[in-house]
C-alpha cells in the first residue's frame, strides 16, 4: 500500500512540480503553519461578516428591497455593528439551565466548524517568505473523513444546547437536528464513495490532482474522452451532495432544527442575543463555507482554473489559483442564498422520507453502477461475469421498486375512494343554502343588533 502511494506521488510530482502530494505535508516550519492557521481563521471570520451582508443584500434585491444601506458605504459595516452588539450585550443565564452544558454547547458547535477547513486546499505549492509550501494547512490519507467527523461532533453541540436549556422547544429542536444530520450525513458520505472509486484516494490534494485532466474510456475500440471535473463525470453524486449540503447546514428548505414558525427558535431558544448566540450563527456560516470548499475540492476541480481560463499556461501556478477557488466559493454561497429566497420549508416527514427513501437508495444504486464500471476496467477482470452480476442486481432493484410502487398505488386509490365517498355523503346531506358547509349561525344571520337576516347561499 505504501509503495502504491509513493508511486502515485512521484507520478503527480513529475506531471506538475507545483501540485502538492501527501509527501509535501508535515515539513513546514512552525511559523509557516501558524501563518496558514491565522489566514484560515481571519478568512472565515471576514467571510462570515461579508457573507451575512451579501445574503441580506441578495435576498433584498430578489424581494425588491434595498437591504442594509445605513451603516457604512452600501451598508458594509452593518454586519460589523451587529457583531459588536452581540458581543457587548448582556449575557442572560436562565435559572433552570444546566450551566456547564449550556456554556459548552456553543463551543462544541463553533470549534469543529473551523477545524474542518484545515484540509481544504487553496492552491498549489508556492514560495512563502522563501519557503516552498502548499496552500493548505494539512492533508491526510483520510482527509475527507475528517470533515464528516467534525460535522458529527458539531451535532453534539446542537443536542447539548437543547438538552442543557431545559426547554421543551429547545429539546425538540435538538432531537430534530440529530435525526436530520444522521439521515443526510449518510447520504453525504455515500456521495463521496464514487469520487473515492475514481480518484483512488481520500486525500483532498490528490483528488484535486486527479481532476487536472480527463481520462479516456475505450468503447468498441474507440477512446472516448472523459471530462476532468467529477461534477460532470459523476453528476448523480454531485447533485446528491448539493442537496445534502443544505441538509447538513440546516438551511432552507431543510432548516427544521430551528423552525422559527414552529419551535420559536429551535435548539437555541433559551440563548439570548449575546456572544453565545453569535457563536451559533458563526458556526452555521462557517459550515456553509466548509461544505462549499469540499464541494469545490471533490467535484469542481479544486483550485484549478475552469475552462477557458485553463488554456492560459500560468493559470494553475503561483497565487492565481486562490482567485479561482474564491470565485467558485462565492458562486456556491450565492446558490445557498438563491435557494433560501426561492424555496419554502418542507414538512419534517417529507424531510426524513426524502433522505431515507430517495437519496440513500439512489446513492447505493449509483455506487453499484460506478463500481461495476471500475471493475470492468481492471486488468484481468472477467467483464462478462461482472456485467451479469450487475444486471441481476439492477433487475432485482427494479422489481423491488415496482413492487413497492404497486402497493403505494393501491393505497392512493383506496384513499381517493374514501375521499370520494365522504364527498358524496356530504353532498347528499341537506345543508343551509344547499352547499356542503356547516350552518352559518352568526348573529347577523338572525337579525341581531338590527341587522337583516340573510340566508346562507343567497345574494
UniProtKB/TrEMBL annotation:
<protein>
    <recommendedName>
        <fullName>NADH-quinone oxidoreductase subunit H</fullName>
        <ecNumber>7.1.1.-</ecNumber>
    </recommendedName>
</protein>
<dbReference type="GO" id="GO:0009060">
    <property type="term" value="P:aerobic respiration"/>
</dbReference>
<keyword id="KW-0520">NAD</keyword>
<feature type="transmembrane region" description="Helical">
    <location>
        <begin position="319"/>
        <end position="339"/>
    </location>
</feature>
<keyword id="KW-1003">Cell membrane</keyword>
<feature type="transmembrane region" description="Helical">
    <location>
        <begin position="385"/>
        <end position="404"/>
    </location>
</feature>
<keyword id="KW-1278">Translocase</keyword>
<keyword id="KW-0812">Transmembrane</keyword>
<feature type="transmembrane region" description="Helical">
    <location>
        <begin position="33"/>
        <end position="53"/>
    </location>
</feature>
<feature type="transmembrane region" description="Helical">
    <location>
        <begin position="277"/>
        <end position="299"/>
    </location>
</feature>
<dbReference type="GO" id="GO:0005886">
    <property type="term" value="C:plasma membrane"/>
</dbReference>
<dbReference type="GO" id="GO:0048038">
    <property type="term" value="F:quinone binding"/>
</dbReference>
<keyword id="KW-1133">Transmembrane helix</keyword>
<dbReference type="InterPro" id="IPR018086">
    <property type="entry name" value="NADH_UbQ_OxRdtase_su1_CS"/>
</dbReference>
<feature type="transmembrane region" description="Helical">
    <location>
        <begin position="229"/>
        <end position="247"/>
    </location>
</feature>
<keyword id="KW-0874">Quinone</keyword>
<feature type="transmembrane region" description="Helical">
    <location>
        <begin position="351"/>
        <end position="373"/>
    </location>
</feature>
<feature type="transmembrane region" description="Helical">
    <location>
        <begin position="184"/>
        <end position="209"/>
    </location>
</feature>
<dbReference type="GO" id="GO:0003954">
    <property type="term" value="F:NADH dehydrogenase activity"/>
</dbReference>
<dbReference type="InterPro" id="IPR001694">
    <property type="entry name" value="NADH_UbQ_OxRdtase_su1/FPO"/>
</dbReference>
<comment type="similarity">
    <text>Belongs to the complex I subunit 1 family.</text>
</comment>
<dbReference type="Pfam" id="PF00146">
    <property type="entry name" value="NADHdh"/>
</dbReference>
<dbReference type="GO" id="GO:0016655">
    <property type="term" value="F:oxidoreductase activity, acting on NAD(P)H, quinone or similar compound as acceptor"/>
</dbReference>
<keyword id="KW-0472">Membrane</keyword>
<comment type="function">
    <text>NDH-1 shuttles electrons from NADH, via FMN and iron-sulfur (Fe-S) centers, to quinones in the respiratory chain. The immediate electron acceptor for the enzyme in this species is believed to be ubiquinone. Couples the redox reaction to proton translocation (for every two electrons transferred, four hydrogen ions are translocated across the cytoplasmic membrane), and thus conserves the redox energy in a proton gradient. This subunit may bind ubiquinone.</text>
</comment>
<feature type="transmembrane region" description="Helical">
    <location>
        <begin position="140"/>
        <end position="163"/>
    </location>
</feature>
<keyword id="KW-0830">Ubiquinone</keyword>
<comment type="subunit">
    <text>NDH-1 is composed of 14 different subunits. Subunits NuoA, H, J, K, L, M, N constitute the membrane sector of the complex.</text>
</comment>
<feature type="transmembrane region" description="Helical">
    <location>
        <begin position="100"/>
        <end position="120"/>
    </location>
</feature>
